[in-house]
Amino acid sequence: xxxxxxxxxxxxxxxxxxxxxxxxxxxxxxxxxxxxxxxxxxxxxxxxxxxxxxxxxxxxxxxxxxxxxxxxxxxxxxxxxxxxxxxxxxxxxxxxxxxxxxxxxxxxxxxxxxxxxxxxxxxxxxxxxxxxxxxxxxxxxxxxxxxxxxxxxxxxxxxxxxxxxxxxxxxxxxxxxxxxxxxxxxxxxxxxxxxxxxxxxxxxxxxxxxxxxxxxxxxxxxxxxxxxxxxxxxxxxxxxxxxxxxxxxxxxxxxxxxxxxxxxxxxxxxxxxxxxxxxxxxxxxxxxxxxxxxxxxxxxxxxxxxxxxxxxxxxxxxxxxxxxxxxxxxxxxxxxxxxxxxxxxxxxxxxxxxxxxxxxxxxxxxxxxxxxxxxxxxxxxxxxx
Amino acid sequence: xxxxxxxxxxxxxxxxxxxxxxxxxxxxxxxxxxxxxxxxxxxxxxxxxxxxxxxxxxxxxxxxxxxxxxxxxxxxxxxxxxxxxxxxxxxxxxxxxxxxxxxxxxxxxxxxxxxxxxxxxxxxxxxxxxxxxxxxxxxxxxxx
Lengths: 385, 144
Prior knowledge:
Number of domains of chain A: 2
Number of strands of chain B: 3
Number of strands of chain A: 12
Strand order of the largest sheet of chain B: 1-2-3
Strand content of chain B: 15-25%
Helix content of chain B: 25-40%
Oligomer: heterodimer
Strand order of the largest sheet of chain A: 2-8-7-6-5-3-4
Structural class of chain A: alpha/beta
Structural class of chain B: alpha+beta
Radius of gyration of chain A: 21 Å
Order of helices and strands of chain B: HEEEHHHHH
CATH class of the largest domain in chain A: Alpha Beta
Largest interface: A-B, 28 and 31 residues
Distance between the termini of chain A: 36 Å
Distance between the termini of chain B: 22 Å
Number of helices of chain A: 15
């Protein structure tokens, strides 16, 4: 069997149609969009077309889309850009944010901003009571992700944004995992800013976007030639932007077919793992989760070991264990769900994508139990349980 | 990030298990930190280690260093075996990524604990300090 890729939450293969659409913009139509000559106009029109596509798919206006070099830059632009011009006050984020938001919040904390990290319940959903209680008179911004990258839980963003607005704060959401997998409409969500990334939806790496609602004042992170309505200087990544536009269009067009199919595959995988492997817990919300995300805590097994064994058998998955992440602590997201650290070390994330099949899921379900069994027999913790 | 030899020892670990009626057993690490290694030894004539087995809960580096260590110390005297350092095991594996060096500290520490256990059991407490002259360790991050 050929290798099976189950790590779509980390990154996705570029769709060949996306690659084809991007290709001319490297060697032939390589113009700088800021130039008035024919090559420049061609590039400008390609960027404008991509912007129109991204905007329409989000239910946004064209002048509300700022292209960036990816999700991390979009998150940083949202947090630093909206707060830079203000006197330090108060910022609210969830306890399960991606490092791009979490570390930006910490950096703001270092510049005098107070930050509250709102806890989540056992399913990974933001605790509403704690959320409401976190607001202060000087709360300027809230950032809560649309769907979690580790455990897949989808947050009640529309409700959280409404509350933030009642309290007079701006609301940003990191929708990097959600866009292309779930319907995302900026007006339905009621958000002021929204981050997305190309490579999570079968587009290229190195490109993303920030939606900025009209009237939201931002300062740029990068100063220079004033591209992207002065919010993101630097010559546009034309092939990447074109790729993002096409990739997002394809993902959203395919969603009515892909989403239910992925959900069926995911449910089959979750049910199979829980039935075949003892002492395993599903992480994240049982139903309100990303279509392709299946995350587990496998007790008495260390996640990187599990990942490497599965890799040797041709299955590419991810783990939130400390060692897999190259840190001293197991995934803070998994721990925020109340999972004990010793169990969080055994976290396993399987993220399915549109090219995955039922045969691949079934092959995984056959491969996993003996690997877990072997690692447990090697584990001094298992004998003592 | 891992050398082929590390992956080989991880994929086909040598001497996994536990010696029944072992002469000495040592366990180090903490499940909260994500790694625990247990080593059991059999000691024969002339203080020679005749058998070693390990069990490890840990990452690829922790498993591979445990496996490599067991291969390195079978047939050695207690004193020689106690001199095998974490750094020496990592070197025998062709090196480990810098972030993984702390994961490699468990194996030799567990062996030292097993040797100590053996000496205590056989009423040779007085020799512990002499036999377990501490070998250099890889630097550990502060949280461990």
